[in-house]
Automatic annotation (TrEMBL):
Catalytic activity: NAD(+) + (deoxyribonucleotide)n-3'-hydroxyl + 5'-phospho-(deoxyribonucleotide)m = (deoxyribonucleotide)n+m + AMP + beta-nicotinamide D-nucleotide
One GO MF term attached to the UniProt entry: DNA ligase (NAD+) activity
KW Metal-binding (keyword) present: yes
Catalytic center residues: K116
Family: Belongs to the NAD-dependent DNA ligase family. LigA subfamily.
Keywords linked to the UniProt accession: DNA damage, DNA repair, DNA replication, Ligase, Magnesium, Manganese, Metal-binding, NAD, Zinc
The gene coding this protein: ligA
Xref: InterPro entries: BRCT_dom, BRCT_dom_sf, DisA/LigA_HHH, DNA_ligase, DNA_ligase_AS, DNA_ligase_CS, DNAligase_adenylation, DNAligase_N
Domain BRCT: 590-672
Cofactor (UniProt): Mg(2+); Mn(2+)
Source organism of the structure: Ohtaekwangia kribbensis
Name of the featured protein: DNA ligase
Positions of Zn(2+) binding: C406, C409, C424, C430
Domain of life, source organism: Bacteria
Amino acid sequence: MTPAQALKEIQELTSKINYHNDLYYQKNTTEISDQEFDLLLKKLEHLEKEFPELKQPDSPSQRVGGTITKEFANVYHKYPMLSLGNTYSQEELEDWDARVAKGLEGDAYEYFCELKFDGVSMSLTYENGLLVRGVTRGDGVRGDDVTNNIRTIRSIPLKVKGTNAPASFEVRGEVFLPKDVFLQLNKEREDIGEERYANARNTASGTVKMQDSTEVARRKLDCYAYSLLGEDVADTHEESIQKLEAWGFNVSPTYRKCKNIQEVIKYITEWDTKRQDLPLETDGVVIKVNSLEQQERLGFTAKSPRWAIAYKYKAQSISTRLNGVTYQVGRTGAVTPVAELEPVFLAGTTVKRASLHNANQIAQLDLRIGDYVFVEKGGEIIPKVTGVDLEKRKEDVQPIQYIANCPVCNTPLIRFEGEAAFYCPNITGCAPQIRGRVEHFIQRKAMDIDSLGEQTIKQLYELGLVKSPADLYSLTREDVLRLEGFKDKSAKNLLDGISKSKETPFESVLFAIGIRYVGKTVAEKLARYFKSIDKIAEASLEDLLKAPEVGEKIAQSVYQFFRNEDSQLEISRLKAAGLQFESTAKEPEKLSDVLGNKSFVISGVFERYEREQLQEIIVQNGGRVVSSVSGKLDYLLAGDNMGPSKREKAEKLGVKIISEQDFEKLLTGHTL
């Protein structure tokens, strides 16, 4: 393919991807499947890799991330990001309206109302139609430059639509984690034995500051634009919102222009219940004077604008009777207490159950069966018990005694040091753990056996056909036909799906086998670092700690997993079934022999590289990466916070310790 042909195809692919992206995020519709969309994106990435000089600054390929940012630069805001004054009552709102009227000296005015979304404020700067910078609010005067991460958010235009945008302007928006994405994220964390995230807002805030933009892309953040700033961009806030919509920004359609404060109050009342149906959390309404000229006349106090205010909804909490506590057992054996409540209508839904998290919370709240408890939805989405209505407590109620044995298999529960949860250790004999491991194994991010489901797995277990993932590969047509609702065609589809899963790459297989704390990303890092299941199984704790993304907790979990007889047997059976247990990732292409077969140990954190990148660069340039310091080692490549034992050993053996800058000199042919 010639560069001219490649350019034409890149432009066509970019146009198609942007079209489908716009359909999905702006018009809430789709014309192609996720898989078809991903194939278009992969084709574009391949062409850009082959012809890097043709990659455009607004290429959709930037949505998938890939950039590592060690430190986020501080950037001063051109327009300060001031906080708004808050009010919780209609009276205070009317008082504010009176101050606006007085400030405008009797001139007519109107308001513009927008829902206040519970996310992370972001400043987006555009020059010549292209996104050039994304900066967090910070202290309002300066924030962190998180541009690489912001580019991964598909609802934020990399290039604005049309040709009528000014040469330079700024957009303010709220970055958020949609409710369904947050729920899925917590489900995945529970699935690998990690603590759930507390709320969507804090999780979004942490995500925009992640070092690896690829991981940010996986989180599927979204953004609503709510403000336009620049020289002579509009006369009213309403006009600026209309321009943002025309330029391709994602603006929540929930806004409304109001003639007076009475219409504002009507809007607030209306959305108090309707907001529960939105895809994200809201905590109030922002009211702004619509005229930008009038905004300028009203000006600012030291902390906030006089022309805008936030009405905050009170957290919806209700008192209801605690009828009992039940206990759920997850895939990892973690036992979670659940409050069984007298049904009550809260935040748009009828609530019958609420999370109690763990035994510590039950003790802290001093809960008793028969108590009237306060239940909130709030930013956690899942209802939670927040306190006890002591005025309604009866004298005969007894404190809750946390169970000592598994509610399913009656095995005595255990509690690991430093953890709040209790666990059932009966890994091979506790039904929810067994079914949970199979459900984890077949999920889309793991073996992707979509012809299987929770109810089918339950039937297979109850019939004694499947007690572990490896049993799936022994199923026969006769076995499947015993399942309720299965005929010849559906049985064939199920068996074909199981057989096809044998082609699943090792990275996904490693995630599928369900090692505690090993999520999708860590599984990929381990697979690419060690290359095979056997090398992971043989690795020492020290070896495991050298792998990317692996800390003490994960290393201990992986190490213990491969020394468990049941785990060894399961891996052996899966190998016999024909699953992939070696990474097919290609070795780095050789670029030079400048490192002359010299050996390197890499330790610590580096300013410009991830350890994986350094390993690849060393191999590409004729060097070798080894795992331990010895007298035969040529260089210890030392970053920040490297292990003191490695440095001491290197110094004792006379091994040369080099910095990141020294390493770059070696790559240019210099000797040290």
